């Protein structure tokens, strides 16, 4: 729709180090004919190739309901929530098996993660999901994420793994979100109903005109383009670019990450780092204060380091793990804000102590740092 700013277009994709790939139901099930194993094998091969190049990939895969419907012999997607949940439970097994087998060909492990939107808006669960996902990614295991359909109602009705993909991109501060679907990209009208529809090559994720052309959903997945445009806007808040592209294009994932112009690119308004930090800063209310020594202030300001307990001289407030706290220097001047890994009682016990003592002091280790640098904004 309009020209992109420097550094946020296709070249951002070729520099991407962490990517969330979301695969929609329509694609995965070959328009309702059962899991398309050959296509899944192809996407897995591309993800394995990216891994070889050092790009971390997290997969968000839909298709549980659609695959379950086929296994159960149902012709039409049910509207009753309990039937959708039952179909998802049956289908999820097939999905995981299929991914696992294909990744095994490349000697790669997968991990099944079922999440709800609520999990990611609750701060404690958000941090738990973050630690687990980060650990998996660091071990070079590919997380395969889907909605936990058994315990949700709205999401299963509206089929909204696009939003889940964006939330995961926010969570992991991914550089890019690739939404693979059954169309070449976002068109200026639904191409299924309008043969003259034109594809939009590029736009700003927050352009209000995009929502107007996105229309409503397809038959199998249901989210349609409107949830994809919304997801792009959400992903942009932490600086990720989003591409909506056809999963049927040969080599689509690797081609996109090499910077090739496929699909619709929706980019953030701000440079990625600024967007991430602004998003974090705007997140939550401050629940407590950590008083830092001069050494800690210096490494936070000058090196962007994580905050270790050893640099903390005092603790105030009533915060829990996952709450936002403010860090102040010895004069009480705010230095940084961030999401704390320990509640106030634990933080008091840990203040001034080296990280290798955490286990001896608490009996467990939640994290070596009091605030991880990814969750910290210097102010
Ligand atoms: N402006 C548009 N451009 C492209 N596709 C559109 C548009 N508006 C509606 N659609 C529909 O959205 C469908 C994709 O959404 P959906 O079926 O939810 O896919 P997925 O399962 O990949 O999430 C397309 O098949 C298309 O019919
Ligand atoms: N959790 C559901 C997700 C449905 C969904 O979001 O579908 P889609 O719009 O195709 O991505 C499933 O696996 O069927």
What does this structure look like?
There is one protein chain. The chain has helices at residues 10-14, 25-28, 37-52, 64-72, 81-104, 117-121, 123-138, 154-158, 161-171, 208-214, 224-236, 252-257, 272-281, 294-303, 344-350, 358-362, and strands at residues 18-23, 56-61, 110-115, 142-147, 176-181, 202-204, 241-246, 264-267, 286-292, 312-317, 324-328, 334-339, 376-378. By secondary structure, it is α/β, with parallel strands linked by helices. The strands form two sheets. Strands 3-4-2-1-5-7-8-6 form an eight-stranded mixed β-sheet, sandwiched between helices. Helix 4 crosses helix 5 (81-104). It is globular and about 65 Å long. It starts with 9 loop residues before the first helix and ends with a strand. The structure holds adenosine-5'-diphosphate and the ligand N[C@@H](CCC(=O)OP(=O)(O)O)C(=O)O. Adenosine-5'-diphosphate (ADP) binds next to helix 2, helix 10 and helix 11.
Strand content: 15-25%
Strand order of the largest sheet: 3-4-2-1-5-7-8-6
- Helix count from the secondary structure assignment: 16
Largest sheet features: 8 strands, mixed
State the low-pLDDT regions, or none: 1-7
Q: Total strand count, please?
A: 13
- Compute the separation of the termini in Å: 35 Å
- Helix content bin: 40-55%
Structural class: alpha/beta
Question: Tell me, what's the shape?
Answer: globular
What string, H for helix and E for strand, traces the elements in order?
A: HEHHEHHEHHEHHEEHHEHEHEHEEEHHE
Mean pLDDT reading = 88
EC number: 2.7.2.11
Binding site for substrate: 62, 149, 161
Binding site for ATP: 22, 181-182
Protein name: Glutamate 5-kinase
């Amino acid at each position: 729709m309009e020209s992109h700013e420097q550094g946020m277009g296709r070249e951002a994709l070729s520099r991407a180090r962490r990517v969330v790939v979301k695969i929609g139901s329509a694609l995965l099930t070959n328009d309702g004919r059962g899991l398309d194993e050959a296509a899944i094998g192809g996407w897995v091969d591309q993800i394995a190739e990216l891994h070889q190049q050092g790009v971390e990939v997290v997969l968000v895969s839909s298709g549980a309901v659609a695959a379950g419907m086929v296994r159960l012999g149902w012709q039409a997607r049910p509207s009753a929530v309990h039937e959708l949940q039952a179909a998802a439970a049956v289908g999820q097994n097939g999905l995981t098996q299929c991914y696992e087998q294909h990744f095994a060909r490349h000697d790669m492990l997968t991990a099944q993660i079922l999440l709800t939107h609520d999990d990611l808006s609750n701060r404690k669960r958000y941090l738990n999901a973050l630690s687990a996902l980060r650990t998996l990614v660091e071990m070079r295991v590919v997380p395969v994420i889907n909605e936990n359909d058994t315990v949700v109602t709205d999401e299963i009705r509206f089929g909204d793994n696009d939003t889940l993909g964006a939330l995961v991109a926010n969570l992991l501060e991914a550089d890019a979100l690739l939404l693979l679907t059954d169309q070449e990209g976002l068109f200026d009208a639904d191409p299924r109903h309008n043969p003259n529809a034109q594809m939009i090559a590029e736009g700003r994720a927050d352009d209000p005109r995009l929502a107007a052309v996105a229309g409503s959903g397809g038959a199998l997945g249901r989210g349609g383009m409107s949830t994809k445009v919304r997801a792009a806007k959400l992903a942009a808040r932490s600086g990720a670019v989003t591409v909506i592209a056809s999963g049927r294009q040969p080599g689509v994932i690797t081609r996109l990450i090499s910077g090739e112009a496929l699909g619709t690119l929706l980019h953030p308004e701000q440079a990625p780092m600024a967007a991430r930090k602004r998003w974090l800063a705007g997140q939550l209310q401050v629940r407590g204060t950590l008083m830092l020594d001069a050494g800690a202030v210096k490494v936070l300001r000058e090196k962007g380091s994580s905050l270790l307990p050893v640099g903390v001289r005092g603790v105030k407030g009533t915060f829990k793990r996952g709450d936002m706290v403010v860090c102040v220097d010895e004069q009480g001047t705010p230095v940084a804000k961030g999401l704390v890994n320990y509640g106030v009682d634990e933080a008091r016990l840990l203040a001034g102590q080296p990280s290798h003592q955490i286990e001896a002091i608490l009996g467990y280790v939640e994290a070596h740092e009091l605030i991880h640098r990814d969750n910290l904004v210097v102010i």
